């Protein structure tokens, strides 16, 4: 058990180094050597845990996303078990916005990944074939609420997520502040789900 915990801790240490480099410099020129230096470990150790550069980048992103999902579930769970569909959807979409320093740092890193995915065919294929889990989750919430009038809940879920990601970019660039972002989010929810009671 201890060895599994040590392995997970070491993998996270190296992943954190990738995140720091991504936030500072982007991922275009990041090498295994740079990651090793940033993490304070040998390059052989990086290769032992992750193999090649592509595997390292993907694993670091997966760790980032898993931790983000865990944090989001805890934050949304703290709101209670009986949230109306609209409020649950709103809470999920708010997790896609840089509303605190932790989320802002995460989305800066993910933006660096986005640029890398644009230029790497192998990574593009991973993105293209990714499971639309978030879209499916939102669609299931919308479908289960009889007050939601929608002829295509999956398309509405895609619309809401695309909007949130666009808003995320504008907030990272300081083009939209938090109060206005939440105002826009509420307006879109009114249009997709109907006006809030």
Automatic annotation (TrEMBL):
A Pfam family reported for this protein in Swiss-Prot or TrEMBL: TetR_C_6
Keyword Transcription regulation tagged: yes
Keyword Zinc-finger: no
Residues annotated to bind DNA: 31-50
Tree of life domain: Bacteria
Keywords, sorted A to Z: DNA-binding, Repressor, Transcription, Transcription regulation
PROSITE patterns given in the database record: HTH_TETR_2
Domain HTH tetR-type: 8-68
Protein name: TetR/AcrR family transcriptional regulator
């Amino acid at each position: 058990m201890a060895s599994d915990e040590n392995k997970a801790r070491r993998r996270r240490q190296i992943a954190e180094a990738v995140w720091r480099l991504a936030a500072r410099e982007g991922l275009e020129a990041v090498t295994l050597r740079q990651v090793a230096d940033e993490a304070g470990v040998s390059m052989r150790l990086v290769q032992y845990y992750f193999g090649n550069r592509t595997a390292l980048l993907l694993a670091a992103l997966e760790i980032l996303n898993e931790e983000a999902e865990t944090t989001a579930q805890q934050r949304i769970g703290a709101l209670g078990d009986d949230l109306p569909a609209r409020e649950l959807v709103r809470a999920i979409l708010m997790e896609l916005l840089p509303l605190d320093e932790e989320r802002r740092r995460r989305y800066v890193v993910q933006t660096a990944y986005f640029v890398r995915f644009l230029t790497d065919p192998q990574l593009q294929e991973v993105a293209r074939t990714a499971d639309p889990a978030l879209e499916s989750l939102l669609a299931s919430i919308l479908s289960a609420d009889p007050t939601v009038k929608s002829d295509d809940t999956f398309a509405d879920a895609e619309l809401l997520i695309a909007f949130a990601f666009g808003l995320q970019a504008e907030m990272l660039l300081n083009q939209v502040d938090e109060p206005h972002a939440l105002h826009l989010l509420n307006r879109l929810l009114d249009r997709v789900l109907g006006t809030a009671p």
